[in-house]
Batch of 2 targets.
Target 1
Amino acid sequence: MHHLDYRNLGHETYWWDVLVLSPAAHDWLIHGLLSGWKRPRQQKHYPNLPQRLAHNWGRLPCSLKMLLVAAIFVALGASLSSNHVFGGGLGALIFILVLWL
């Protein structure tokens, strides 16, 4: 579990005040990689920008996350190909394959 906000301590709402994370994601990603391997009291600004972005990403509904990731794959496929329709379709196909794995 990772608290995003302590204002509702004891009356937290999942996915708004608290993210349910694996211990590895909590320790390695949130308090590791995104913080520069510093604990909150060691950081000059907590949460820092990467941590705030991860907090807000975690609050989004799963369906919206899937739409955003799909749009990124389609846009990347379209921008990397000379044929934008083919590239966008290729990006969508890669997204579907990644989703199934």
Note: The mean pLDDT is 82.
Target 2
Amino acid sequence: MLKMIDVLEQQLVQNFSDSLFTQTDAIDDLFHEQLKTVADIDLQNLISQFFSTENALEVAQDLDIQADQIEAIQSGADLKDESLVTATAKIVAYCLVIETNILHQVEVFESLQDYPM
């Protein structure tokens, strides 16, 4: 089974992890740019693996990915296309959070404790 952290460049994974603990407006742009350097076939395989999980459609919707984008991604559209790069980044970020188990290190404000994560 492929893992995001094995395919993505170490710098991308490290920048992603660091971004969870810092506030920066440029991190999304940097993440998108670094995603564009990942080999297309590797990215397709990782996204395909994500959609093969039991609750992938529900997770994608929870990530605010539109139904037409989900359909386009599943039908093999260019994941690095401007119209899909944000959706692709959301999926990759979600998978990185799960694989690195980093969410437990993020401090959640008391007012958000009851919000499902």
Note: The CA atoms of residues 108 and 115 lie 10 Å apart.
